[in-house]
């Protein structure tokens, strides 16, 4: 996949690039408004990550330009601004998702993949990992072609794991992904353990993909 | 302000006018009465002297004594005496009653003989004149006051019109509108000055407010960006480096603190911008459904039991994000401050929501719990310290009523929706 990261903060830009390139994406960067406009006018991207507060201009205007040129790229707005107005404006203009700084790269990654699935395959895509198949539209999970019953949270957890395959996920990151703002009220994340255990049980033979990393983190991988 | 009885400006001026009028009447009427009476008395006496003088001359010149008792009579008298002026009662056969007369007796020597000349004049008539004059005075005074009253009221209303118009404009002034108040000018110097002052003041306030808002937004933006960089770098570091379990713990812990800062920032911005929210985002919200959903979410992460009791269906027309934040903060607060197993109880009634959690004793300074960064005690669990402040602010903006009370060993937070 070809991804454009339009973010004026170099350090963040680099970090996102490093993270995404692990999944064999091709990442290009734009550091200001003009550069972003220039890039989208020259190349086609599968995904554009757009910071609203770009140097010399607004990411929303880049978005307008993208829509004007009938780009097929998925667009995720990155913003430090949490206001609902901005969110709605971005989504109204045709952005596919919106993520507020600071975010976890794993969360961004998961959202990118969700947008790509929806965009390219009309919402019918399947996520595949070894013998696990997830039909994201119907939210059904098959292990060795046999459906298994997961709760909403277990399903989200599995999708989060698969989209971040091979990366270390701390309990904090998982808790935030699953419970959002509500997770910050707790000072320990041991309840995550219960959910992971339940998921492992339901995955049966496929449970060994969920591995413990560094004692308190988790990593989803085949080896 | 509510306890003080207040009165409008026009009422006040009218009241003053009436008070002064009444005082004036009360004071001037006796004065006038006294004054006229004295005057009439003098007139009567003057007339008596004059008549007495004419009689004396007539008698001297013509040698003839005229008498018309009881109005005037001349009688011989043995010796000269000083004149006597007195009141006397005389029977009037025509009216069959005794009337009050003023009587002057002078002693004169006419053609060698001593005479006493007595002249009388009826006082009752002058009394009537006094009364009539007074009545007329009172009527015209009252009339003048009434006319003056209505006239000055209308006049005052006219004069004060720019004041009232501007007052109304001030009452509708809102910082969120971010435009200066539109005031009417007046040819009255004070009002004109007041207008200028208010305009200067409001533009100053708007300017400061916008500055502060911009400052908050900038700070928030800078903070979020820095935190985002830290977060992203940490995450890459965790994935790329060979680190020990302990290092991982430490770094995860760092991530948690970054998250805390981010949350704090988010909440501060929410608090700062709450009253700028637009009402167009309002929609119908079923509180029952919303709570059902939120309780499911909270149960998954809450160490304490949560009970939900839905007595009635409660639907609000409001800002969904704020309502969610309101309930989320109350629930977090209840979970954080519950020792042991709970349970936390949520009750929805037709106009209210109650969330309670078990506790040992009533909070000592209950009115302070809604303040920013208020901590109950040292062992309070860490939190942003903004949850209840946000709850109160949201209630303020949405015009709900939030209260705390302690009953049956439970802390109750009650929100009454109007």
Keywords:
heterodimer, A: 223 residues, alpha/beta, Rossmann fold, Arc Repressor Mutant, subunit A, 2 domains, five-stranded parallel beta sheet, four-stranded antiparallel beta sheet, 8 helices, 14 strands, 41% helix, globular, B: 418 residues, alpha+beta, Heat Shock Protein 90, 3 domains, five-stranded mixed beta sheet, 7 helices, 55% helix, TCS_sensor_his_kinase (chain B), transmembrane (chain B), transferase (chain B)
List the helices and strands and how they pair.
The complex is a heterodimer of chains A (223) and B (418).
Chain A: E1 2-6, H1 10-21, E2 26-30, H2 33-42, E3 47-51, E4 53-54, E5 57-58, H3 59-68, E6 74-79, H4 84-92, E7 97-100, H5 105-121, E8 126-129, E9 132-135, E10 140-143, E11 146-148, H6 152-163, E12 168-170, H7 171-179, H8 191-203, E13 210-213, E14 217-220
Parallel strand pairs in A: 1-2, 1-3, 3-6, 6-7
Antiparallel strand pairs in A: 4-5, 8-9, 9-10, 10-11, 12-14, 13-14
Helix pairs in contact in A: 2-3, 6-8
Chain B: H1 9-62, E1 72-76, E2 84-92, E3 97-110, E4 113-122, H2 123-171, H3 189-240, H4 245-273, E5 283-286, H5 287-301, E6 306-310, E7 315-318, H6 320-336, E8 344-348, E9 352-358, H7 387-398, E10 401-407, E11 410-416
Parallel strand pairs in B: 6-8
Antiparallel strand pairs in B: 1-4, 2-3, 3-4, 5-7, 8-9, 9-11, 10-11
Helix pairs in contact in B: 1-2, 3-4, 5-6, 6-7
Brief write-up:
The complex is a heterodimer of chains A (223) and B (418). Chain A is α/β, with parallel strands linked by helices.
Overview of this protein structure:
The complex is a heterodimer of chains A (223) and B (418). Chain A is α/β, with parallel strands linked by helices and 223 residues long. Chain A has helices spanning 10-21, 33-42, 59-68, 84-92, 105-121, 152-163, 171-179, 191-203, and strands spanning 2-6, 26-30, 47-51, 53-54, 57-58, 74-79, 97-100, 126-129, 132-135, 140-143, 146-148, 168-170, 210-213, 217-220. Chain A starts with a strand and ends with a strand. Chain B has 418 residues and is α+β, with helices and mostly antiparallel strands. Chain B folds into three domains: 9-146, no CATH class; 190-274; 283-416, 2-Layer Sandwich (Heat Shock Protein 90). Chain B has seven helices and eleven strands. Chain B has a five-stranded mixed β-sheet. A four-stranded antiparallel β-sheet of chain B has the order 1-4-3-2. The longest helix of chain B has 54 residues, at 9-62. Chain B is rod-shaped. Chain B starts with 8 loop residues before the first helix and ends with a strand. The mean pLDDT of chain B is 85. Chains A and B meet through helix 1 and helix 7 of A and helix 3, helix 4, helix 5 and helix 6 of B.
């Amino acid at each position: 996949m070809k991804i454009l990261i339009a973010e004026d903060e170099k350090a963040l830009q680099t970090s996102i690039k490093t993270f995404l390139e692990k999944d064999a994406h091709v990442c290009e960067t734009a550091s200001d408004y003009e550069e972003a406009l220039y890039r989208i006018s020259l190349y086609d991207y599968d995904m554009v990550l757009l910071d609203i507060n770009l140097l010399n201009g607004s990411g929303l205007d880049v978005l307008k330009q993208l829509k004007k040129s009938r780009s097929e790229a998925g667009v995720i707005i990155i913003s430090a601004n949490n206001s609902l107005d901005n969110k709605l404006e971005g989504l109204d203009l045709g952005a596919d998702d919106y993520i507020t700084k600071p975010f976890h790269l794993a969360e961004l990654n998961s959202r990118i993949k969700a947008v790509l699935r929806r965009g390219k395959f009309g919402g019918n895509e399947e996520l595949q990992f070894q013998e696990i198949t997830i039909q994201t539209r119907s939210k059904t999970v098959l292990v060795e072609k046999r459906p298994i019953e997961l709760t909403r949270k277990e399903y989200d957890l599995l999708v989060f794991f698969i989209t971040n395959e091979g990366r270390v996920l701390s309990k904090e990151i998982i808790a935030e992904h699953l419970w959002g703002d509500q997770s910050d009220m707790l000072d320990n994340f041991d309840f995550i353990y219960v959910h992971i255990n339940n998921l492992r049980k339901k995955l049966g033979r496929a449970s060994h993909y969920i591995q413990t990393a560094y004692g308190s983190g988790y990593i989803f991988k085949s080896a | 302000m509510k306890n003080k009885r207040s009165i409008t400006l026009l009422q006040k001026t009218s009241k003053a006018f009436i008070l002064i009028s009444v005082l004036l009447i009360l004071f001037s009427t006796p004065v006038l009465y006294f004054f006229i009476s004295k005057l009439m008395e003098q007139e009567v006496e003057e007339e008596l002297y004059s008549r007495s003088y004419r009689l004396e001359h007539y008698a001297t010149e013509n040698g003839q004594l005229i008498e018309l008792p009881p109005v005037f009579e001349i009688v011989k008298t043995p010796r000269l005496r000083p004149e006597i002026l007195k009141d006397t009662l005389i029977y009037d056969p025509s009216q069959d009653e005794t009337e009050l007369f003023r009587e002057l007796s002078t002693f004169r020597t006419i053609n060698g003989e001593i005479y006493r000349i007595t002249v009388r004049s009826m006082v009752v008539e002058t009394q009537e004149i006094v009364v009539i004059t007074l009545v007329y005075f009172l009527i015209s005074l009252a009339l003048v006051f009434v006319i003056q009253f209505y006239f000055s009221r209308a006049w005052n209303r006219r004069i004060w019109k720019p004041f009232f118009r501007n007052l109304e404009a001030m009452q509708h002034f809102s910082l969120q509108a971010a435009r200066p108040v539109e005031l009417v000018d007046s040819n009255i110097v004070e009002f004109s000055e007041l207008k200028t002052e208010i305009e200067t003041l409001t533009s100053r306030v708007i300017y400061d407010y916008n500055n502060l808002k911009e400052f908050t937004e900038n700070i928030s933006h800078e903070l979020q960006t820095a935190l985002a960089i830290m977060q992203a770098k940490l995450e890459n570091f965790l994935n790329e480096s060979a680190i020990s379990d302990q290092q991982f713990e430490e770094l995860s812990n760092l991530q948690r603190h970054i998250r805390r800062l981010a949350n704090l920032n988010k909440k501060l911005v929410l608090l700062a911008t709450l009253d700028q929210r637009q009402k167009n985002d309002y929609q119908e919200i079923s509180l029952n459904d919303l709570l059902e959903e939120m309780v499911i979410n909270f149960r998954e992460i809450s160490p304490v039991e949560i009970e939900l009791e839905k007595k009635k269906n409660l639907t609000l027309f409001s800002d969904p994000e704020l309502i969610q934040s309101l309930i989320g903060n109350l629930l977090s607060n209840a979970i954080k401050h519950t020792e042991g197993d709970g349970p936390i109880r949520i009750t929805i009634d037709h106009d209210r929501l109650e969330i309670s959690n078990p506790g040992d004793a009533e909070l000592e300074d209950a009115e302070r719990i809604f303040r920013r960064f208020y901590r109950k005690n040292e062992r309070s669990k860490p939190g942003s310290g903004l949850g209840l402040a946000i709850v109160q602010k949201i209630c303020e903006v949405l015009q709900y009523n939030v209260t705390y009370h302690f009953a049956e060993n439970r802390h109750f937070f009650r929100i009454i929706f109007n």
